[in-house]
Amino acid sequence: MGKTDLERVRDWAIQKLATGAEPPWSWYQLMKLREATEAILEGMAVTQPTAYSRGSAHHEDAGLQLVGSSDPQETARHRPALRRVPLPM
Question: CA 15 to CA 34: how far, in whole Å?
């Protein structure tokens, strides 16, 4: 679904709301639809493609690559197991 489709759906919902002839349950759903499409369109307006996504069509056939882990737990030194401390009875 592209930007023009979302705008068309939003405009349809706004027109239905403007008539005032919708039942309460429908009015609520139309309001949610309008708000959701507006939020998506606003997000699309502020999002810009990155350099990687512009060239992603070129890299689609490259396949998977193995990369190193960035998980600090995997690179951290392992601590020795905790010793049991005898408790007084």
Answer: 10
C-beta separation of 30 from 17 below 8 A: yes
Task: Give dist(CA 27, CA 10) in Å, integer.
Answer: 14
How would you class 13 by CB atoms within 10 Å of its CB: exposed for 0-12, middle for 13-18, buried for 19 or more? buried
Token reading at 78: 């392992």
C-alpha dist (Å) from residue 9 to 16, 17, 68 = 11, 12, 44
**pLDDT per residue over 67-89, tens digit each?**
776 666 655 666 667 777 777 86
Name the residue with higher pLDDT: 36 or 63.
Answer: 36
Q: What are phi and psi of 57, to 5 degrees?
A: -60, -35
What's the CA gap between 7 and 36, in Å, rounded? 11
Tens digit of each residue's pLDDT (9 = 90 or more) over 5-29 = 999 999 999 999 999 888 888 999 9
